[in-house]
Amino acid sequence: MSRLLFRTRIKFCGMTRPGDIRLACELGADAIGFVFAPGSPRRLDPEEARAMRNALAPLVDAVALFMDNPAEEVREVVRRVRPSLLQFHGSEDDAFCRGFGVPYLKAVPMGDDPRAYTATALQLRYPGAAGFLFDSHVRGGSGGSGRTFDWAQIPSGLHKPFVLAGGITPDNVFDAVLTVQPWGVDVSSGIESAPGIKDGYKMRRFVEEVRRADCHIG
Ligand SMILES: O=C(O)c1ccccc1N[C@@H]1O[C@H](COP(=O)(O)O)[C@@H](O)[C@H]1O
């Protein structure tokens, strides 16, 4: 695909405050992530997330993030929060992920032996995925760690869009976009002052650096 008119999509994840969401939308974030993964310091309950969703500007996606949550919890979030995309970080299979009638991204834990994840294997295992998200955690481990992984291990030949995550910050996102040329980038701890508390200055710098990289590639 030609990158001439291409714009790297930006997802800001782990939002817990309406003011952070409003700023993210003004800065041009394409998607806002709400975390429902058990044990996460950014975890919201569905009612909190519903209130947060109301802070979203039009044309910005609401993404709901899960990690081996029971189906009933996912259904409850879908019913109350109405996310436009689901993101699964656990050992969920394709049938589970597809079962909620909402497009989904499957997170791939690149902290494991990444050779296990060829493009063909991923696409066969998750035929219903709208795309993949490569993150630094190990299988069964939690995301949002702020750690990077070896970007060279991302499988080539994927036919679906993929998102780069894991330890992306305003300081490394320019290199990340230039090196990996992903469909989008997803950041949580890299734009925070504390878990769930976003830093406006870091959010702004992050967006500026992605746009600078897009201009470079074009
Ligand atoms: O943010 C969390 O707490 C979280 C918990 C469980 C699974 C994933 C989680 N976050 C996602 O992890 C990646 C990388 O985050 P970071 O930028 O390294 O902090 C990203 O997709 C987050 O949405």
What's the name of the CATH homologous superfamily?
Aldolase class I
Q: Which percent band covers the strand fraction? A: 15-25%
Count of distinct structural domains = 1
Helices, by number, come to 7
Quaternary state of this entry equals single chain
Q: Report mean pLDDT, rounded to a whole number.
A: 94
Order of helices and strands: EHEHEHEHEHEEHEEEH
Using DSSP, what is the number of strands? Answer: 10
The order of strands across the largest sheet is: 1-2-3-4-5-6-7-8
- Biggest pleated sheet: 8 strands, parallel, barrel
Radius of gyration from the CA trace? 16 Å
Binned, the helix content reads 25-40%
Shape: globular
Ligands: the ligand O=C(O)c1ccccc1N[C@@H]1O[C@H](COP(=O)(O)O)[C@@H](O)[C@H]1O
- Low-pLDDT stretches are none
**What structural class do you assign from the helix and strand content?**
alpha/beta
CATH topology (level 3) name? TIM Barrel
CATH architecture type = Alpha-Beta Barrel
- N/C terminus separation: 12 Å
Pathway: Amino-acid biosynthesis; L-tryptophan biosynthesis; L-tryptophan from chorismate: step 3/5
InterPro entries: Aldolase_TIM, PRAI_dom, RibuloseP-bd_barrel, TrpF_fam
Domain N-(5'phosphoribosyl) anthranilate isomerase (PRAI): 11-208
Keywords: Amino-acid biosynthesis, Aromatic amino acid biosynthesis, Isomerase, Tryptophan biosynthesis
